[in-house]
Specification:
14 helices; PyrdxlP-dep_Trfase_small; seven-stranded mixed β-sheet; AspAT/PAT-like; about 40% helix; three-stranded antiparallel β-sheet; Aminotransferase_I/II_large; transaminase activity; alpha/beta
Amino acid sequence: MTARVSDRIAAIAESATLAVDAKAKALQAAGRPVIGFGAGEPDFPTPDYIVAAAIKACSDPKWHRYTPAGGLPELKEAIAVKTKRDSGYEIAASQVLITNGGKQALYNAFAALLDPGDEVILPAPYWTTYPESIRLAGGVPVEVMTDETSGYRATIAQLDAARTPRTKALVFVSPSNPTGAVYSPAEVKAIGEWAVANGIWVITDEIYEHLVYGDAQFASMPALVPELANTCIVVNGVAKTYAMTGWRVGWLIGPADIVKGATNLQSHATSNVANVSQVAALAAVTGNLDAVNEMKVAFDRRRKLITGMLDVIPGVNCPLPEGAFYVYPSVKELIGKNLRGQKIESSAQLSALILDEVEVAVVPGEAFGTPGYLRLSYATSDSNITEGVGRIAALLGEVN
């Protein structure tokens, strides 16, 4: 029988993070006391001034019509100003494409850049969407493995070992999802110079730029390596910084030809992002960062709380993350041991056991290309962290 779904689409894996979050929410809706650490979604409301701008836009007929597929001109201008303010990278508004969230920005970037068979170096652990977007665009992800011993940071030697004549691009993420790793400015600069020297494009995801803690510093690669600008695409958005995950506004920044190609694609795929959301994003990027800094204080407190609770569990090794709002503990020492009559065969099986036995949702490392780990988002309340990790600790205390 002929397959009903195309090979291209059938090869895509479901988003594991969204799947875990959906299952947790379904159980919660059924009355179960599930605590979810699955989705990377701030638990704060969108700041009031942003919501007010959206409400006002709803009543203005000019936002009831189509607008340019590439984004509102005033929002593109504001993003150019914001980019200079926050990362020191000077761009023109014409280099910006407004997209339906960061995921569309990534897909548009890969689709505009890659030809079939082009290789993209992808450090692992990686966010689940990167390899799927690369494959959809005809590219081939080439994984470079990192672990907790290197702070989940790839070295230039590793990147160079993965390079072949087919290498077209590198995906670079700092701060990182899922690990919270942050590369130092010196490391960012060195990797950018390596990319320039080898004629490799860089797609750099800066969605967590404001969420760094302690002595860690965010650094934008094209700002530190200006000669990279013509072979660099920056992906960003309002989702994480401004607690606007549901508003669906992201953007990509790149050279004129890439932005033109990506805009042409978007004009046929979705046309313009919802105008009300774009007006809300305009209020976000032109406003101050006071609300962002308040959230950051809470995230900083929570990262210390969750790391401390996880790291004392026997068999769990949880490094303190430097950015974003995730911890990525290793559970490799638990593989092969027994828990409630079952042998732990993998981190995927362990995450399922945790959900079934103590009703806590976590995402297994298999989703991020590195089995033997769990990802927990601490973008949730202190009480949820205390209760949820407490349940996990009690359960894993039975491992033998």
